[in-house]
Amino acid sequence: MTLSFEDRISECSTRIGYQFNDSQLLWQALVHRSWQAEHNEPLSNERLEFLGDAVLGWVVADLAFHRLDNMAEGKLTDLRRSVVNMHALADLARNLGLGDFILLGRGEEAANGFEKTSILADTFEAIIGAIYLDGGASAAFGFVKRMLTAPIEEAIPQLHMFDAKTRLQELCSRIGIGAPEYDIEGVGPDHERMFTATVIIDGDAYGSGEGRTKKAAEQIAAVGAYETLATQHNV
Description:
Elements: H1 5-16, H2 23-30, H3 33-39, H4 46-67, H5 73-83, H6 86-96, H7 106-110, H8 117-155, H9 164-175, E1 181-187, E2 194-201, E3 204-211, H10 214-232
Helix pairs in contact: 2-8, 4-5, 4-8, 5-8, 6-8, 9-10
């Protein structure tokens, strides 16, 4: 069923936990360029996405800086990358059910654009931009903090694994074996999907790992594979 303007704004505002003073900003944040092209809409959400991306980076950098006051710059960057990426943001959008409200053109709608990772992530950033314009820096900071605090806390214990795939690749090259490949399987609904990655080298499995994103599962699997190979080759 197609939602009216009022219902779309009201229900989406409830989902994200922020009431807009200017409801047109939220509407614009939900307008995909495919809808804009078909409905003569003045603007898509791309400008808000641009702004939201910058605001998101600022807030996460601030949260990481104050949460880990003794951590080196490189690890702070790793932490930000682990929670500010297309897949992680799309997961947050799925958890909020934003796909129910995105305005898509007929082609994207037929292609299940409501479920596309890129569209969900872009819409999430556009909403951050809209909140920033509507309520200022404080409102945007509060929204991002509420949404990202848990992912940041989950990512901190795994920072030592962030570059595990690179380390494994270098080890394989050093000991003269094939490059690692990753076999990925996903189970569960989109909003609770879990991925299992298995490292395959020269046809043999060397490690596996589970995570909420493909990237996280691959990193965990790479850690196990690295430890196995390092032990086998005494390096």
